[in-house]
Amino acid sequence: MDQIVNKLLLSKLCTEGDNSIAVYNPADDSVIGYIPSLSSSEIYQKIEQSKAAQQKWQGKTASERSAVLQRWYQLVLENADDLARIMTMEQGKPLAEAKGEVMYGASFIQWFAEEAKRTYGETIPTPVASRRLMTIKQPVGVTAAITPWNFPIAMITRKAAPALAAGCSCLVKPANQTPLSAYAIAELAYQAGLPQELLVVINNHSSVVVGDIFCNHEDIKKLSFTGSTEVGRTLIKLTADTVKRTSMELGGNAPFIVFEDADLDAAVAGAVASKFRNAGQTCVCANRFYVHDSIYDQFVDKFITAVSHLKIGNGLDEGVSIGPLIDKKSKTNVLHLIDQARAQGAQLRFGGESLAGCFMQPTILSEVTQDMSIVSQEIFGPIAPVLRFNDVDDLIEKANDTIYGLASYFYTQDLNRAFKVAEALEYGMVGINEGIISTEVAPFGGVKQSGFGREGAKQGIEEYLSTKYLCIGGM
Ligand code: SIN
């Protein structure tokens, strides 16, 4: 076992039993270890402890909080290789990609360590001569995060770092498939000097149990969720009784558009990166490709050539670029989408085969049309459905014809068109001549049923702050 697993994780692992959750390696279905499932009363106790710790933490200066986050950031960098190995083992993504995620996750800690010092209020010109008006920003209090398995570290730091920087505490419920990365990243925060009650990892056999407690507990003032739109809807309803602040980063159905004047090689490279990162298991993955009729065949040929070079295998092995899907259920769903599309008239141009265990071939489908079910569903797997278009207005209508509005992409060399299309796309994020757009310095988030709230950037910390208005009279 890796050094970090020994040093940081062994104390968190437990033996197989009723109160334990098995963690599997999706590459070979082996059990990596067991983690404890906390009872409801243990979770309530952790919330109480977190509340007490948060009250002290908010009394620290921004510089003091920032210093702890800076130390955490440094420790994540020092342990990046080990963190990446843990991630690959429990999540499946190739090691280089896992390392990329560790660095991406670390970037949120560094960014919010800096933003901690910039939570400015404002002075407001007074309408009454005897008064002075101002606002101050204060932490919302104890917060909770429910994070997904596709980014086991970055989705935690993107929520916990701004929470901690703002003076909040954060209880994290990681996905049951990937809790070891959560424990490891939290352990490094403790080593950096963060009191354990401020960043608490909570697992239970049932995500519903934890979700219910998080949503209904009076002392939890904010819930941040990354996951499916379906679960997001339930959480929004459940948080209504306590009128809790929420931010929701939900599903996507990203269009990837290639105009006739696009740099075709750049578009193909962007398409591969956007579609096949994490085996197609990201909320911002290109979900459907619209390619202008005049370059359609050329694009599809080049796309097939590029995808044929992707190496499938255990993410720990050298040179692998596509790992397994997270579990067999997920693979079954994805394969079903291929069968369904073919039955509806799509042509299988590459891949399409189920491989051993959780592995499957990256797949390209051509002659896909807007009415096919694969176009309206979030695929969450390595399938690229390619559609033809001719007319821009019709294209925009089709690109926007979805309940989702997270990421979108298009390739063109025409600046005029770039602005018009970017403005017309009903999405929270638009990549123009870029297939990977995520960064800690820009606001990540969606519109429509892809959710609300923004993560990263200067907006990210606002989600964890309340604005208080002060009116000073008798001047
Ligand atoms: C996600 O898939 O939810 C996050 C992807 C990213 O941050 O790039």
UniProtKB/TrEMBL annotation:
Pfam families given in the database record: Aldedh
BP GO annotations: gamma-aminobutyric acid catabolic process
NADP found in the keyword field: no
Annotated SUPFAM superfamilies: ALDH-like
Active site feature: E249
InterPro entries in the record: Ald_DH/histidinol_DH, Ald_DH_C, Ald_DH_CS_CYS, Ald_DH_CS_GLU, Ald_DH_N, Aldehyde_DH_dom, Aldehyde_DH_Superfamily, Succ_semiAld_DH
Keywords for the protein's UniProt record, in alphabetical order: Oxidoreductase
Span of domain Aldehyde dehydrogenase: 19-469
MF GO annotations: succinate-semialdehyde dehydrogenase (NAD+) activity
Entries under Gene3D superfamilies matching the protein: Aldehyde Dehydrogenase, Chain A, domain 1, Aldehyde Dehydrogenase, Chain A, domain 2
Family indicated by similarity: Belongs to the aldehyde dehydrogenase family.
Protein name, UniProt field: NAD-dependent succinate-semialdehyde dehydrogenase
Biological source species: Vibrio amylolyticus
Taxonomic path: Bacteria, Pseudomonadati, Pseudomonadota, Gammaproteobacteria, Vibrionales
